[in-house]
Amino acid sequence: MAESRRLGKADLTLPCKEMAHYLLGKILARKLDNGAVLKGRIVETECYLGGEDKASHSYNGRQTPGNEPMYMPSGTTYVYFTYGMYFCFNISSIEPGAVVLIRAAEPLQGLETMAKFRSVKKKGVLKETELCNGPSKLCIAMNMTKQNCNKMDLCESEVLWIEDDGGKVEEKEIVISTRIGIASAGEEWAGKPLRFYVLSNPHVSKRDKKAERELS
C-alpha cells in the first residue's frame, strides 16, 4: 500500500452527506489488543440524518444514553447493537444527531485475522469478498463492539482511526441508491437516496443495478 496519513479534525468536520462521499476510498484501521492492525478500504456508506429522518435513531431530536455519540463532535464513533446479535459502526457528522454508517470495506491488511473472527459466526471457508461486505460483517471481522469501539474520537484514538493513502474515488464512480433494511421507516424515508458505494467494487454489500445503469 502507498504511504498514508491519518485523518484529523479538519478532515472529519463535515456534513453527513459530504462525509458519506468523502469516506469512500479511505482506510479504516483497527488496532487489536495484541498490537495487530487490521485495515479495510471503505467502499459503502449510508447517511442517517436525524431530525426528520424516520430511519435514524435520533429521529425528531430523540436523545438517549444509547445514542449519545450521535450528538458528540464530528468524527466520534457510534456503535450500536441490533437484532439482538450484531453491531453496526457509525461516525458522527457536524449536524446534531446525524451519522454515517460504514456498510462495507475491502480488506487490505490482517485478512487471516478477519477470517478467524468471522468464522466464529459462520461455518466454512469465506471468500475475501465476504469478510466485510455488510455492516455487521465488518464489525465482526475487525472486532468492533459497543464495549470496545463506541464513543471514540477517530482523530485521537490509539485503537481506531481513518487513513488517506490517496485512493480517491471519483464522483462518476459513486453509485447513489436507497438505504437497506429500513422499510419500517415508511416509504418516503426508505426511498431516500442516502446510500453510496463504489461502482464495480466486489466488496459492496448489495448492488443497485438500476442506479448503476443511470450512472453510466
TrEMBL record:
EC assignment: 3.2.2.21
InterPro entries: Formyl_transferase-like_C_sf, MPG, MPG_sf
GO BP annotations, alphabetical order: base-excision repair
Reaction equation(s) it catalyzes: Hydrolysis of alkylated DNA, releasing 3-methyladenine, 3-methylguanine, 7-methylguanine and 7-methyladenine
GO molecular function, one term: DNA binding
Pfam families found in the cross-reference section: Pur_DNA_glyco
CDD domains, sorted: AAG (cd00540)
Gene3D superfamilies, per the entry: Methylpurine-DNA glycosylase (MPG) (3.10.300.10)
UniProt keyword annotation of Ribosomal protein present: no
Keyword Cell membrane: no
Top-tier EC class: hydrolase
Keywords recorded for this protein, A-Z: DNA damage, DNA repair, Hydrolase
Stated family: Belongs to the DNA glycosylase MPG family.
Subunit comment: Binds MBD1. Binds SSBP1.
Reported function: Hydrolysis of the deoxyribose N-glycosidic bond to excise 3-methyladenine, and 7-methylguanine from the damaged DNA polymer formed by alkylation lesions.
Protein name per Swiss-Prot or TrEMBL: DNA-3-methyladenine glycosylase
Naturally occurring in which organism (per UniProt): Zophobas morio
